[in-house]
Design brief:
The protein is mostly helical. The chain is built from 8 helices and no strands. 65% of the residues lie in helices and 0% in strands.
Length: 188
């Protein structure tokens, strides 16, 4: 992927995220949009800047720290503006590995040289979501479900079982071929 394509992909991702943000602000009543509530967007913006820098210099791996920083900014916005409760850090921290997974997937899409980025990103994202469900259920994030919150744990277990049965059993082993070069020494 050349630098123009990487840059277009980066700007496209940022525009999609900005569009989603403005749709959410417009159609969810009661969201606090004052400057006091919007300070986490400086952190999200720092993540966007990291993504743009990575795309500009041809380093798609910069998507990983960009997604971590922007994701933490998103969590802070959620806690500061929507719930007004920072005690959700007891289970929200489990989303950070998911941000790493999203960064790995984006890095792969931007042309990362690491061929395992897509698989690793999906595995990390899945693990993060399962941890979020488990810790969220334990720390009361799913009170909305009432007495049925343990079904979230059952769903996480079923997801793990599904992944274990349908995971490819064939392992790819990389081999290295070493060539020997015969060099003749000049005769004296």
């Amino acid at each position: 992927m050349n630098s123009n394509q990487r840059f277009s992909l980066t700007i496209g991702i940022i525009l999609i995220l900005l569009g989603i943000f403005f749709v959410v602000i417009r159609f969810i009543p009661g969201l606090d949009t004052s400057m006091n509530a919007l300070w986490p967007f400086f952190i999200i913006g720092a993540g966007a800047v990291l993504l743009i820098i990575g795309a500009s210099v041809g380093s798609p791996e910069m998507a990983i720290p960009a997604f971590i920083v922007a994701g933490i900014g998103g969590i802070l916005y959620f806690q500061n503006s929507i719930t007004h409760d920072f005690s959700s850090w007891s289970y929200m921290w489990t989303l950070i590995p998911g941000f790493v997974g999203l960064g790995e997937i984006t890095s792969y899409l931007m042309g990362s040289r690491n061929k395992n980025s897509l698989r690793s990103g999906l595995n990390t994202l899945t693990t993060s979501l399962i941890m979020f469900l488990v810790f969220g259920a334990f720390f009361g994030a799913f009170r909305v479900l009432g007495d049925y919150w343990p079904l979230v744990l059952v769903a996480a277990g079923l997801l793990l079982l599904f992944r274990s049965f349908f995971k490819p059993s064939k392992r790819v082993v990389e081999t290295t071929v070493v060539e020997t070069i015969n060099v003749e020494t000049p005769k004296e």
